[in-house]
Design goal:
By secondary structure, the protein is an alpha/beta fold. Helices cover 37% and strands 23% of the residues. The protein binds glycinamide ribonucleotide. Glycinamide ribonucleotide (GAR) binds next to helix 1, strand 5 and helix 7.
Length: 189
């Protein structure tokens, strides 16, 4: 069994979707969820599916070691970022080389980098009059949204689309592809 951890900062619809996908898997298990926020939806979403979630402080995250201890306790071999809004510290990166992936709600390298997250991305895409947007699943390195790209999928953006409508299309792509890409990475590793 390959145990994975999901890091999430907000509502956690991706975390829930990934957890559901692997519920009956014989190979992959979502062992725990870690978050920098206590009052966000991800806890209830995964707890009701039997997955424990933990909150870490800014200091614990910066130090890295308390996070690594928690990951070791659950025998975690792979980390999935799903709506996680903090930069992963060097301590964690060094402990999981090539074993941390993120999903970004746009077609990187466009609309990435610091400050480009969640609805900010969709607002920028609509404002620029883009004809398409999409998702990028990539490895995580020490710079925001710059790790090697693993997978991209696109969706049309219509002139009449609001940022919320683009977000819905992008979320649909995330739900469809992220669990399968994670599974492929784990099973071909
Ligand atoms: C997702 O769309 C994810 O791609 C995005 O935040 C949303 C989280 O939704 N991540 C980023 O913007 C990271 N830069 P969720 O909490 O419902 O899964």
């Amino acid at each position: 069994m390959r145990n994975i951890a999901i890091f999430a900062s907000g509502s956690g619809t991706n975390a829930e979707n990934i957890t559901r996908y692997f519920t009956n898997s014989e190979n992959v298990k979502v062992a725990l969820v870690l978050s920098n926020n206590r009052n966000v939806g991800v806890h209830e979403r995964v707890n009701k599916l039997g997955v424990p979630s933990f909150v870490f402080s800014r200091d614990e995250f910066a130090a890295g070691t308390p996070i690594l201890e928690k990951l070791a306790e659950y025998d975690v071999c792979f980390i999935v970022l799903a709506g996680f809004m903090n930069k992963i510290s060097d301590v964690i990166l060094r402990a999981f080389p090539g074993k941390i992936v993120n999903i970004h709600p746009a077609l990187l390298p466009r609309y990435g980098g610091k400050g480009m997250y969640g609805m900010h991305v969709h607002e920028a895409v609509v404002k620029a009059g883009e004809k398409e947007s999409g998702i990028t699943i990539h490895y995580v390195n020490e710079r925001y949204d710059e790790g090697g790209i693993i997978f991209q999928a696109s969706c049309p953006v219509l002139p009449s689309d609001t940022p919320e409508e683009v977000a819905n299309k992008v979320h649909a792509l995330e739900y469809k592809h992220y669990p399968c890409v994670i599974e492929r990475l784990l099973l071909t590793d």
